[in-house]
Write a structure and sequence with these properties.
This protein is α/β, with parallel strands linked by helices. It contains five helices and seven strands, in the order H-E-H-E-H-E-E-H-E-H-E-E.
């Protein structure tokens, strides 16, 4: 029996948060589709999406995001992974996507400026999985609400862009 010493072997995989799990259940397999994960450094959402065949663009302010995601990702999936160091709010544009997932970017001070970039990035029929404040949730008028769950003062939503 060979000993596997490839990167990521023995590295515990983080638990997939409920928001991501719900989004993946509703969105299904990647099948050539692209997801943008804002705030991806712990790798939970990224590795779950890659496992289902998504191409993933992860954006995080952590300067070690490349190394962290590389350690958590199997070699076969790495060609479908791009990691970007920086703030999503600091990007001129977000990449076009079929799914945008963020747990906190739309809760902070940059929510107002980031919202139009997310909407622009999502292809028609694309899915947003996000934690939102009540004020931000009002912007979903006209979207198809697929799932919603209150977690304290925030709302976790999965919604389809018109």
């Amino acid at each position: 029996m060979r000993h596997d010493s490839s990167p990521g072997v023995g590295v515990p995989r983080p638990a997939v948060p409920p928001l991501c799990s719900t989004a993946l259940t509703l969105a299904g397999a990647g099948a050539g589709r692209t997801a943008v994960v804002i705030g991806c450094a712990n790798g939970a959402e990224t590795t779950a999406l890659l496992a289902l065949g998504w191409t993933v663009i992860g954006i995080d302010e952590d300067p070690d995001v490349h190394e962290k995601l590389h350690a958590l990702t199997d070699e076969a999936s790495r060609e479908r992974l791009t990691s970007v160091v920086g703030s999503a709010a600091g990007q001129d544009r977000l990449p076009e996507a079929d799914l945008v997932l963020t747990r906190s970017a739309l809760l902070g001070e940059h929510a107002t400026s980031l919202w139009p970039r997310i909407v622009e990035a999502l292809r028609p029929g694309g899915i947003l999985a996000a934690r939102l404040t009540e004020a931000t949730a009002r912007r979903l008028r006209g979207w198809e609400l697929l799932s919603e769950r209150y977690t304290g003062a925030t709302l976790e939503v999965v919604a389809r862009r018109p």
